[in-house]
Protein backbone atom coordinates (compact mmCIF):
# COMPACT_ATOMS: atom_id res chain seq x y z
CA UNK A 1 0.00 0.00 0.00
CA UNK A 2 2.85 2.34 0.82
CA UNK A 3 4.56 1.69 -2.54
CA UNK A 4 1.27 2.30 -4.36
CA UNK A 5 0.83 5.65 -2.61
CA UNK A 6 4.37 6.68 -3.59
CA UNK A 7 3.67 5.83 -7.22
CA UNK A 8 0.53 7.94 -7.21
CA UNK A 9 2.47 10.85 -5.81
CA UNK A 10 5.32 10.51 -8.30
CA UNK A 11 3.17 10.92 -11.41
CA UNK A 12 1.94 14.27 -10.09
CA UNK A 13 5.30 15.50 -8.90
CA UNK A 14 6.49 17.06 -12.16
CA UNK A 15 6.68 20.87 -12.19
CA UNK A 16 4.99 23.00 -14.79
CA UNK A 17 7.55 24.30 -17.29
CA UNK A 18 6.21 27.37 -19.11
CA UNK A 19 7.17 27.29 -22.75
CA UNK A 20 8.14 23.63 -22.63
CA UNK A 21 5.05 21.78 -21.42
CA UNK A 22 2.67 24.64 -20.76
CA UNK A 23 1.57 27.63 -22.86
CA UNK A 24 -1.40 29.83 -21.88
CA UNK A 25 -4.29 29.16 -24.24
CA UNK A 26 -5.25 32.07 -26.48
CA UNK A 27 -7.19 32.24 -29.76
CA UNK A 28 -4.38 34.40 -31.15
CA UNK A 29 -2.47 31.16 -31.61
CA UNK A 30 -4.84 30.28 -34.46
CA UNK A 31 -4.15 33.34 -36.62
CA UNK A 32 -0.44 33.11 -35.85
CA UNK A 33 -0.55 29.59 -37.28
CA UNK A 34 -2.88 30.46 -40.16
CA UNK A 35 -0.50 33.07 -41.58
CA UNK A 36 2.00 30.27 -42.26
CA UNK A 37 -0.14 27.19 -42.92
CA UNK A 38 -2.88 28.90 -44.94
CA UNK A 39 -0.84 31.92 -46.09
CA UNK A 40 -2.22 32.13 -49.64
CA UNK A 41 -5.72 30.94 -48.79
CA UNK A 42 -8.64 33.40 -48.76
CA UNK A 43 -9.28 34.69 -45.25
CA UNK A 44 -11.75 37.53 -45.88
CA UNK A 45 -14.12 38.34 -48.72
CA UNK A 46 -15.90 41.67 -48.30
CA UNK A 47 -17.53 42.90 -51.50
CA UNK A 48 -14.74 43.43 -54.01
CA UNK A 49 -12.06 43.06 -51.32
CA UNK A 50 -10.34 39.70 -50.80
CA UNK A 51 -7.46 39.16 -48.38
CA UNK A 52 -5.37 36.07 -47.76
CA UNK A 53 -4.49 34.82 -44.31
CA UNK A 54 -1.01 36.31 -44.66
CA UNK A 55 -2.53 39.69 -45.58
CA UNK A 56 -5.10 39.51 -42.79
CA UNK A 57 -2.41 38.74 -40.24
CA UNK A 58 -0.36 41.68 -41.54
CA UNK A 59 -3.27 44.09 -41.04
CA UNK A 60 -4.16 42.70 -37.61
CA UNK A 61 -0.55 43.02 -36.48
CA UNK A 62 -0.44 46.60 -37.79
CA UNK A 63 -3.64 47.42 -35.91
CA UNK A 64 -2.23 45.93 -32.71
CA UNK A 65 0.97 47.96 -33.01
CA UNK A 66 -0.96 51.13 -33.86
CA UNK A 67 -3.14 50.69 -30.76
CA UNK A 68 -0.05 50.22 -28.58
CA UNK A 69 1.31 53.49 -29.99
CA UNK A 70 -2.00 55.08 -28.92
CA UNK A 71 -1.33 53.90 -25.38
CA UNK A 72 -3.67 50.88 -25.42
CA UNK A 73 -2.51 47.81 -23.56
CA UNK A 74 -3.36 45.27 -20.89
CA UNK A 75 -6.40 46.40 -18.90
CA UNK A 76 -7.54 48.94 -21.50
CA UNK A 77 -10.76 48.58 -23.49
CA UNK A 78 -11.05 49.42 -27.19
CA UNK A 79 -14.71 49.69 -28.17
CA UNK A 80 -15.88 49.01 -31.73
CA UNK A 81 -19.25 49.70 -33.34
CA UNK A 82 -18.97 47.92 -36.68
CA UNK A 83 -20.99 45.80 -39.06
CA UNK A 84 -19.87 42.42 -40.39
CA UNK A 85 -17.05 43.87 -42.46
CA UNK A 86 -13.36 43.15 -43.02
CA UNK A 87 -12.55 45.79 -40.40
CA UNK A 88 -14.59 43.94 -37.79
CA UNK A 89 -12.74 40.71 -38.58
CA UNK A 90 -9.48 42.60 -38.06
CA UNK A 91 -10.65 44.07 -34.77
CA UNK A 92 -11.44 40.59 -33.40
CA UNK A 93 -7.74 39.72 -33.65
CA UNK A 94 -5.85 43.02 -33.80
CA UNK A 95 -7.15 44.53 -30.56
CA UNK A 96 -6.02 41.45 -28.63
CA UNK A 97 -2.60 41.68 -30.32
CA UNK A 98 -2.15 45.06 -28.66
CA UNK A 99 -2.79 43.46 -25.27
CA UNK A 100 -6.04 45.40 -24.86
CA UNK A 101 -9.57 44.08 -24.44
CA UNK A 102 -12.09 44.30 -27.29
CA UNK A 103 -15.54 45.72 -26.70
CA UNK A 104 -18.14 45.18 -29.44
CA UNK A 105 -21.02 47.67 -29.27
CA UNK A 106 -24.41 46.52 -30.56
CA UNK A 107 -24.99 48.58 -33.70
CA UNK A 108 -28.72 48.81 -32.90
CA UNK A 109 -28.29 50.73 -29.64
CA UNK A 110 -29.38 54.32 -29.18
CA UNK A 111 -26.95 57.13 -28.29
CA UNK A 112 -27.77 57.10 -24.56
CA UNK A 113 -26.96 53.39 -24.21
CA UNK A 114 -23.82 53.73 -26.33
CA UNK A 115 -22.69 56.54 -24.03
CA UNK A 116 -23.29 54.33 -20.98
CA UNK A 117 -21.23 51.48 -22.48
CA UNK A 118 -18.33 53.81 -23.32
CA UNK A 119 -18.33 55.40 -19.88
CA UNK A 120 -18.83 52.21 -17.89
CA UNK A 121 -16.03 50.41 -19.75
CA UNK A 122 -13.61 53.38 -19.48
CA UNK A 123 -13.07 52.99 -23.23
CA UNK A 124 -9.60 54.11 -24.30
CA UNK A 125 -10.50 54.33 -28.02
CA UNK A 126 -13.71 54.06 -30.03
CA UNK A 127 -13.71 52.66 -33.58
CA UNK A 128 -17.00 53.03 -35.46
CA UNK A 129 -18.39 52.63 -38.95
CA UNK A 130 -19.32 55.84 -40.75
CA UNK A 131 -22.99 54.81 -40.91
CA UNK A 132 -23.11 55.07 -37.08
CA UNK A 133 -21.02 58.22 -36.80
CA UNK A 134 -23.98 60.48 -35.95
CA UNK A 135 -25.12 58.22 -33.11
CA UNK A 136 -21.56 57.89 -31.85
CA UNK A 137 -20.90 61.61 -31.82
CA UNK A 138 -24.20 62.21 -30.03
CA UNK A 139 -23.12 59.68 -27.39
CA UNK A 140 -19.62 61.14 -27.05
CA UNK A 141 -20.99 64.65 -26.62
CA UNK A 142 -22.60 63.61 -23.33
CA UNK A 143 -19.38 62.30 -21.76
CA UNK A 144 -16.97 64.30 -19.62
CA UNK A 145 -13.93 62.37 -20.85
CA UNK A 146 -14.88 60.87 -24.22
CA UNK A 147 -12.46 58.48 -25.93
CA UNK A 148 -11.07 59.46 -29.34
CA UNK A 149 -13.34 58.38 -32.21
CA UNK A 150 -11.81 56.60 -35.20
CA UNK A 151 -14.23 56.42 -38.14
CA UNK A 152 -14.15 53.59 -40.66
CA UNK A 153 -14.99 54.66 -44.20
CA UNK A 154 -15.91 58.04 -45.64
CA UNK A 155 -13.70 60.61 -47.27
CA UNK A 156 -11.29 60.77 -44.37
CA UNK A 157 -10.97 57.13 -43.29
CA UNK A 158 -9.38 57.42 -39.87
CA UNK A 159 -9.22 53.67 -39.48
CA UNK A 160 -7.04 53.15 -42.54
CA UNK A 161 -4.72 55.87 -41.28
CA UNK A 162 -4.59 54.14 -37.90
CA UNK A 163 -3.70 50.77 -39.43
CA UNK A 164 -1.09 52.37 -41.69
CA UNK A 165 0.63 53.86 -38.64
CA UNK A 166 1.36 50.39 -37.27
CA UNK A 167 4.30 48.13 -38.04
CA UNK A 168 3.39 44.57 -38.99
CA UNK A 169 6.84 43.39 -37.94
CA UNK A 170 6.59 44.87 -34.45
CA UNK A 171 6.54 42.05 -31.90
CA UNK A 172 3.34 41.35 -30.01
CA UNK A 173 3.12 39.26 -26.89
CA UNK A 174 0.48 36.63 -26.14
CA UNK A 175 -1.11 36.95 -22.69
CA UNK A 176 1.02 35.68 -19.83
CA UNK A 177 -2.17 34.52 -18.15
CA UNK A 178 -4.87 32.73 -20.15
CA UNK A 179 -7.35 34.17 -17.63
CA UNK A 180 -6.63 37.68 -18.98
CA UNK A 181 -9.64 39.54 -20.38
CA UNK A 182 -10.01 39.04 -24.11
CA UNK A 183 -13.34 40.78 -24.64
CA UNK A 184 -16.01 42.81 -22.88
CA UNK A 185 -19.55 42.29 -24.15
CA UNK A 186 -22.62 44.07 -22.84
CA UNK A 187 -25.91 42.30 -22.36
CA UNK A 188 -29.22 43.92 -21.57
CA UNK A 189 -30.24 40.99 -19.39
CA UNK A 190 -33.58 41.65 -17.72
CA UNK A 191 -32.93 44.88 -15.88
CA UNK A 192 -32.50 48.42 -17.09
CA UNK A 193 -28.74 48.92 -17.41
CA UNK A 194 -26.60 46.60 -19.55
CA UNK A 195 -24.05 44.47 -17.70
CA UNK A 196 -20.46 44.19 -18.92
CA UNK A 197 -19.53 40.52 -19.36
CA UNK A 198 -15.77 39.92 -19.17
CA UNK A 199 -14.54 36.83 -21.05
CA UNK A 200 -11.05 35.35 -21.14
CA UNK A 201 -8.51 33.96 -23.61
CA UNK A 202 -8.80 30.36 -22.40
CA UNK A 203 -12.54 30.23 -22.92
CA UNK A 204 -12.32 31.78 -26.39
CA UNK A 205 -9.72 29.19 -27.42
CA UNK A 206 -11.91 26.33 -26.23
CA UNK A 207 -15.03 27.90 -27.78
CA UNK A 208 -13.33 28.10 -31.18
CA UNK A 209 -12.52 24.38 -31.12
CA UNK A 210 -15.99 23.45 -29.86
CA UNK A 211 -17.54 25.33 -32.79
CA UNK A 212 -15.60 23.18 -35.26
CA UNK A 213 -16.66 19.98 -33.49
CA UNK A 214 -20.31 20.92 -33.05
CA UNK A 215 -20.60 21.88 -36.72
CA UNK A 216 -19.70 18.31 -37.61
CA UNK A 217 -16.01 19.03 -38.16
CA UNK A 218 -15.21 22.04 -40.34
CA UNK A 219 -13.17 21.34 -43.49
CA UNK A 220 -9.72 22.95 -43.45
CA UNK A 221 -7.67 24.93 -45.99
CA UNK A 222 -10.45 26.81 -47.74
CA UNK A 223 -13.07 24.08 -47.47
CA UNK A 224 -15.08 26.17 -45.02
CA UNK A 225 -16.69 29.32 -46.39
CA UNK A 226 -18.59 30.93 -43.55
CA UNK A 227 -21.20 33.62 -44.24
CA UNK A 228 -21.46 36.34 -41.59
CA UNK A 229 -25.21 36.56 -41.03
CA UNK A 230 -24.65 36.47 -37.27
CA UNK A 231 -23.59 39.92 -35.98
CA UNK A 232 -19.96 39.81 -34.85
CA UNK A 233 -20.92 42.12 -31.99
CA UNK A 234 -22.88 39.17 -30.52
CA UNK A 235 -20.41 37.40 -28.21
CA UNK A 236 -17.57 38.07 -30.68
CA UNK A 237 -19.49 36.23 -33.36
CA UNK A 238 -19.81 33.20 -31.05
CA UNK A 239 -16.04 32.74 -31.45
CA UNK A 240 -16.19 31.95 -35.16
CA UNK A 241 -13.49 34.47 -36.20
CA UNK A 242 -11.03 32.28 -34.26
CA UNK A 243 -12.63 29.04 -35.47
CA UNK A 244 -12.07 30.11 -39.08
CA UNK A 245 -8.45 30.97 -38.32
CA UNK A 246 -7.99 27.51 -36.81
CA UNK A 247 -9.20 25.74 -39.97
CA UNK A 248 -8.09 28.28 -42.57
CA UNK A 249 -11.68 29.02 -43.57
CA UNK A 250 -13.02 32.11 -45.29
CA UNK A 251 -14.91 34.97 -43.63
CA UNK A 252 -17.57 35.94 -46.17
CA UNK A 253 -18.77 39.33 -44.93
CA UNK A 254 -22.36 40.50 -45.24
CA UNK A 255 -23.13 43.99 -44.01
CA UNK A 256 -26.92 43.86 -44.42
CA UNK A 257 -28.68 40.55 -43.85
CA UNK A 258 -31.39 40.17 -46.50
CA UNK A 259 -32.70 37.32 -48.62
CA UNK A 260 -31.06 38.91 -51.68
CA UNK A 261 -27.73 39.28 -49.88
CA UNK A 262 -27.74 35.71 -48.59
CA UNK A 263 -28.84 34.30 -51.96
CA UNK A 264 -26.06 36.19 -53.75
CA UNK A 265 -23.48 34.84 -51.30
CA UNK A 266 -24.82 31.31 -51.69
CA UNK A 267 -24.60 31.55 -55.47
CA UNK A 268 -21.33 33.50 -55.87
CA UNK A 269 -19.23 32.64 -52.81
CA UNK A 270 -19.84 28.93 -52.36
CA UNK A 271 -20.98 29.36 -48.76
CA UNK A 272 -20.87 26.18 -46.69
CA UNK A 273 -21.83 27.39 -43.21
CA UNK A 274 -23.65 30.25 -41.45
CA UNK A 275 -25.22 31.11 -38.10
CA UNK A 276 -28.08 33.28 -36.94
CA UNK A 277 -31.29 33.73 -35.00
CA UNK A 278 -34.48 31.92 -36.08
CA UNK A 279 -35.45 34.88 -38.25
CA UNK A 280 -32.23 34.34 -40.24
CA UNK A 281 -33.13 30.66 -40.64
CA UNK A 282 -36.26 31.75 -42.49
CA UNK A 283 -34.25 34.13 -44.68
CA UNK A 284 -31.71 31.38 -45.41
CA UNK A 285 -34.47 28.97 -46.39
CA UNK A 286 -35.78 31.47 -48.94
CA UNK A 287 -32.24 32.05 -50.23
CA UNK A 288 -31.66 28.30 -50.54
CA UNK A 289 -34.87 27.85 -52.52
CA UNK A 290 -33.86 30.68 -54.83
CA UNK A 291 -30.12 30.32 -55.32
CA UNK A 292 -28.84 26.98 -54.04
CA UNK A 293 -31.26 24.21 -55.00
CA UNK A 294 -29.78 20.76 -54.59
CA UNK A 295 -26.98 21.94 -52.28
CA UNK A 296 -26.47 21.21 -48.58
CA UNK A 297 -25.50 24.11 -46.33
CA UNK A 298 -25.08 23.85 -42.56
CA UNK A 299 -26.46 26.43 -40.14
CA UNK A 300 -26.42 27.02 -36.39
CA UNK A 301 -29.30 28.85 -34.75
CA UNK A 302 -29.84 30.03 -31.19
CA UNK A 303 -32.35 32.06 -29.26
CA UNK A 304 -35.98 31.01 -29.28
CA UNK A 305 -36.16 27.40 -30.47
CA UNK A 306 -37.11 27.15 -34.17
CA UNK A 307 -40.57 25.82 -34.82
CA UNK A 308 -40.86 22.21 -35.95
CA UNK A 309 -42.48 23.40 -39.20
CA UNK A 310 -39.48 25.68 -39.85
CA UNK A 311 -37.04 22.81 -39.32
CA UNK A 312 -38.99 20.62 -41.73
CA UNK A 313 -38.96 23.34 -44.39
CA UNK A 314 -35.23 23.94 -43.82
CA UNK A 315 -34.44 20.25 -44.31
CA UNK A 316 -36.49 20.17 -47.51
CA UNK A 317 -34.56 23.18 -48.84
CA UNK A 318 -31.18 21.58 -48.10
CA UNK A 319 -30.42 23.60 -44.96
CA UNK A 320 -29.06 21.40 -42.17
CA UNK A 321 -29.93 23.27 -38.96
CA UNK A 322 -28.17 22.70 -35.62
CA UNK A 323 -29.83 24.23 -32.57
CA UNK A 324 -27.46 25.67 -29.97
CA UNK A 325 -28.01 27.47 -26.68
CA UNK A 326 -26.04 29.77 -24.45
CA UNK A 327 -25.60 33.28 -23.11
CA UNK A 328 -23.28 36.22 -23.47
CA UNK A 329 -21.85 34.96 -20.16
CA UNK A 330 -20.89 31.66 -21.84
CA UNK A 331 -19.10 33.15 -24.88
CA UNK A 332 -22.27 32.46 -26.88
CA UNK A 333 -23.42 28.87 -27.44
CA UNK A 334 -22.31 26.48 -24.70
CA UNK A 335 -24.83 23.74 -25.45
CA UNK A 336 -25.79 21.96 -28.64
CA UNK A 337 -28.73 19.77 -29.54
CA UNK A 338 -26.52 16.95 -30.80
CA UNK A 339 -28.47 14.98 -33.37
CA UNK A 340 -28.64 11.23 -32.85
CA UNK A 341 -28.96 8.62 -35.59
CA UNK A 342 -31.26 6.60 -33.34
CA UNK A 343 -33.99 9.25 -33.29
CA UNK A 344 -37.11 8.28 -35.27
CA UNK A 345 -37.60 10.59 -38.25
CA UNK A 346 -40.98 11.71 -36.96
CA UNK A 347 -39.40 12.85 -33.67
CA UNK A 348 -36.48 14.81 -35.13
CA UNK A 349 -38.15 18.27 -35.42
CA UNK A 350 -39.31 18.23 -31.78
CA UNK A 351 -36.09 16.71 -30.42
CA UNK A 352 -33.82 19.14 -32.28
CA UNK A 353 -35.73 22.13 -30.87
CA UNK A 354 -34.36 21.34 -27.39
CA UNK A 355 -31.34 23.08 -25.91
CA UNK A 356 -29.43 19.80 -25.72
CA UNK A 357 -26.14 18.88 -24.07
CA UNK A 358 -22.88 20.64 -23.22
CA UNK A 359 -20.40 21.63 -25.93
CA UNK A 360 -17.79 18.98 -26.63
CA UNK A 361 -15.07 21.07 -24.96
CA UNK A 362 -17.21 23.43 -22.94
CA UNK A 363 -17.77 21.86 -19.56
CA UNK A 364 -20.90 21.45 -17.50
CA UNK A 365 -24.55 21.91 -18.47
CA UNK A 366 -27.13 20.88 -15.91
CA UNK A 367 -30.57 21.61 -14.50
CA UNK A 368 -30.62 22.04 -10.73
CA UNK A 369 -32.90 22.89 -7.88
CA UNK A 370 -32.61 26.71 -7.65
CA UNK A 371 -32.52 26.56 -3.84
CA UNK A 372 -30.19 23.63 -3.15
CA UNK A 373 -28.19 23.32 -6.37
CA UNK A 374 -28.95 19.59 -6.52
CA UNK A 375 -29.48 18.17 -10.04
CA UNK A 376 -33.08 17.44 -10.98
CA UNK A 377 -34.01 13.92 -12.12
CA UNK A 378 -34.09 12.97 -15.81
CA UNK A 379 -37.85 12.67 -15.96
CA UNK A 380 -38.80 15.41 -18.41
CA UNK A 381 -41.09 16.88 -15.75
CA UNK A 382 -39.16 18.27 -12.79
CA UNK A 383 -38.38 21.94 -13.37
CA UNK A 384 -35.10 23.50 -12.29
CA UNK A 385 -32.68 26.23 -13.30
CA UNK A 386 -30.16 25.74 -16.09
CA UNK A 387 -26.55 26.18 -14.92
CA UNK A 388 -23.21 26.21 -16.74
CA UNK A 389 -19.71 25.45 -15.52
CA UNK A 390 -16.27 25.05 -17.02
CA UNK A 391 -14.07 26.66 -19.62
CA UNK A 392 -16.63 28.79 -21.44
CA UNK A 393 -17.94 30.73 -18.46
CA UNK A 394 -17.22 34.44 -17.98
CA UNK A 395 -14.85 35.93 -15.42
CA UNK A 396 -17.67 38.10 -14.10
CA UNK A 397 -19.53 41.38 -14.59
CA UNK A 398 -17.40 44.51 -14.83
CA UNK A 399 -17.73 46.76 -11.75
CA UNK A 400 -20.63 44.71 -10.37
CA UNK A 401 -19.59 42.36 -7.58
CA UNK A 402 -23.17 41.84 -6.40
CA UNK A 403 -24.40 40.71 -9.82
CA UNK A 404 -21.34 38.47 -10.22
CA UNK A 405 -21.96 36.83 -6.84
CA UNK A 406 -25.63 36.31 -7.69
CA UNK A 407 -24.74 34.73 -11.02
CA UNK A 408 -22.49 32.15 -9.32
CA UNK A 409 -24.72 31.58 -6.29
CA UNK A 410 -25.24 27.88 -7.10
CA UNK A 411 -21.54 27.12 -7.52
CA UNK A 412 -22.02 27.41 -11.27
CA UNK A 413 -23.31 30.09 -13.63
CA UNK A 414 -27.05 30.43 -13.12
CA UNK A 415 -28.84 31.16 -16.39
CA UNK A 416 -32.22 32.26 -15.06
CA UNK A 417 -33.84 29.80 -17.48
CA UNK A 418 -36.18 27.15 -16.14
CA UNK A 419 -35.95 23.74 -17.78
CA UNK A 420 -36.33 20.00 -17.46
CA UNK A 421 -33.96 17.14 -18.25
CA UNK A 422 -35.35 14.44 -20.49
CA UNK A 423 -34.53 10.78 -20.02
CA UNK A 424 -31.68 11.03 -22.54
CA UNK A 425 -30.09 13.85 -20.51
CA UNK A 426 -30.99 16.57 -23.01
CA UNK A 427 -32.08 19.90 -21.52
CA UNK A 428 -35.34 21.49 -22.66
CA UNK A 429 -36.28 25.00 -21.52
CA UNK A 430 -39.83 25.46 -20.31
CA UNK A 431 -39.81 29.11 -19.20
CA UNK A 432 -37.59 32.08 -18.46
CA UNK A 433 -37.54 33.02 -14.84
CA UNK A 434 -36.54 36.58 -15.67
CA UNK A 435 -39.12 37.07 -18.42
CA UNK A 436 -36.50 37.64 -21.07
CA UNK A 437 -37.81 37.94 -24.62
CA UNK A 438 -35.58 36.96 -27.55
CA UNK A 439 -36.68 38.75 -30.69
CA UNK A 440 -34.69 38.28 -33.87
CA UNK A 441 -31.73 37.11 -31.77
CA UNK A 442 -31.80 40.23 -29.57
CA UNK A 443 -32.43 40.08 -25.83
CA UNK A 444 -35.38 42.25 -24.86
CA UNK A 445 -36.02 43.08 -21.21
CA UNK A 446 -39.74 42.92 -20.51
CA UNK A 447 -39.18 45.23 -17.53
CA UNK A 448 -37.62 47.89 -19.75
CA UNK A 449 -40.55 47.75 -22.17
CA UNK A 450 -43.00 47.97 -19.28
CA UNK A 451 -41.15 50.98 -17.88
CA UNK A 452 -41.33 52.76 -21.24
CA UNK A 453 -45.08 52.16 -21.58
CA UNK A 454 -45.73 53.26 -18.01
CA UNK A 455 -44.45 56.72 -18.91
CA UNK A 456 -47.65 57.30 -20.91
CA UNK A 457 -50.25 59.21 -18.93
CA UNK A 458 -53.06 56.87 -19.96
CA UNK A 459 -51.31 53.68 -18.80
CA UNK A 460 -52.17 52.58 -15.27
CA UNK A 461 -50.48 49.18 -15.34
CA UNK A 462 -48.91 46.93 -17.93
CA UNK A 463 -47.17 43.59 -18.30
CA UNK A 464 -45.07 42.50 -21.26
CA UNK A 465 -44.54 38.89 -22.32
CA UNK A 466 -43.23 37.07 -25.37
CA UNK A 467 -45.62 36.36 -28.22
CA UNK A 468 -44.53 33.61 -30.64
CA UNK A 469 -43.75 35.05 -34.07
CA UNK A 470 -42.97 33.11 -37.24
CA UNK A 471 -40.53 35.73 -38.51
CA UNK A 472 -38.80 37.00 -35.34
CA UNK A 473 -39.11 33.95 -33.10
CA UNK A 474 -40.70 36.09 -30.38
CA UNK A 475 -41.94 39.68 -30.16
CA UNK A 476 -42.93 41.75 -27.11
CA UNK A 477 -46.67 41.72 -26.44
CA UNK A 478 -48.01 44.34 -24.01
CA UNK A 479 -51.10 43.81 -21.87
CA UNK A 480 -52.30 47.19 -20.63
CA UNK A 481 -54.76 48.65 -18.14
CA UNK A 482 -55.60 52.28 -18.90
CA UNK A 483 -57.06 55.25 -17.04
CA UNK A 484 -58.39 56.97 -20.17
CA UNK A 485 -59.06 56.23 -23.81
CA UNK A 486 -55.98 55.56 -25.91
CA UNK A 487 -55.57 53.42 -29.01
CA UNK A 488 -52.97 50.76 -29.70
CA UNK A 489 -51.29 52.72 -32.50
CA UNK A 490 -50.58 55.64 -30.17
CA UNK A 491 -49.06 53.39 -27.52
CA UNK A 492 -46.93 51.54 -30.06
CA UNK A 493 -45.60 54.83 -31.45
CA UNK A 494 -44.97 56.06 -27.90
CA UNK A 495 -42.92 52.94 -27.09
CA UNK A 496 -40.97 53.01 -30.36
CA UNK A 497 -39.81 56.54 -29.58
CA UNK A 498 -38.30 55.37 -26.28
CA UNK A 499 -36.88 51.96 -27.09
CA UNK A 500 -34.54 50.35 -29.63
CA UNK A 501 -36.55 49.24 -32.63
CA UNK A 502 -36.17 45.54 -31.84
CA UNK A 503 -37.41 46.06 -28.25
CA UNK A 504 -40.61 47.95 -29.03
CA UNK A 505 -43.81 45.92 -28.58
CA UNK A 506 -45.54 44.71 -31.74
CA UNK A 507 -48.88 44.02 -30.04
CA UNK A 508 -51.02 45.84 -27.42
CA UNK A 509 -53.94 44.15 -25.68
CA UNK A 510 -56.25 46.23 -23.46
CA UNK A 511 -58.02 44.85 -20.40
CA UNK A 512 -57.70 43.96 -16.73
CA UNK A 513 -54.53 42.04 -15.88
CA UNK A 514 -54.85 38.70 -14.06
CA UNK A 515 -53.55 38.81 -10.48
CA UNK A 516 -52.92 36.46 -7.60
CA UNK A 517 -54.65 36.95 -4.26
CA UNK A 518 -51.72 39.10 -3.18
CA UNK A 519 -51.94 41.32 -6.27
CA UNK A 520 -49.03 39.83 -8.25
CA UNK A 521 -49.55 39.80 -12.01
CA UNK A 522 -49.87 36.26 -13.37
CA UNK A 523 -47.59 36.38 -16.37
CA UNK A 524 -48.04 32.71 -17.12
CA UNK A 525 -51.70 33.48 -17.87
CA UNK A 526 -50.67 36.31 -20.17
CA UNK A 527 -48.21 34.07 -21.99
CA UNK A 528 -51.02 31.66 -22.76
CA UNK A 529 -53.15 34.54 -24.04
CA UNK A 530 -50.27 35.76 -26.20
CA UNK A 531 -49.84 32.29 -27.71
CA UNK A 532 -53.54 32.22 -28.61
CA UNK A 533 -53.54 35.60 -30.36
From TrEMBL:
Keywords: Fatty acid metabolism, Ligase, Lipid metabolism. One of its GO terms (molecular function) is ligase activity. Residues 449-520 form the AMP-binding enzyme C-terminal domain. Signal peptide: none annotated. Pfam families: AMP-binding, AMP-binding_C. One of its GO terms (biological process) is fatty acid metabolic process. SUPFAM superfamilies: Acetyl-CoA synthetase-like. InterPro entries: AMP-bd_C (IPR025110), AMP-bd_C_sf (IPR045851), AMP-binding_CS (IPR020845), AMP-dep_synth/lig_dom (IPR000873), ANL_N_sf (IPR042099). Residues 35-398 form the AMP-dependent synthetase/ligase domain. Belongs to the ATP-dependent AMP-binding enzyme family. PANTHER family: ACYL-ACTIVATING ENZYME, BUTANOATE--COA LIGASE AAE1-RELATED. This is AMP-dependent synthetase/ligase domain-containing protein. The lineage of its organism: Eukaryota, Sar, Stramenopiles, Ochrophyta, Pelagophyceae.
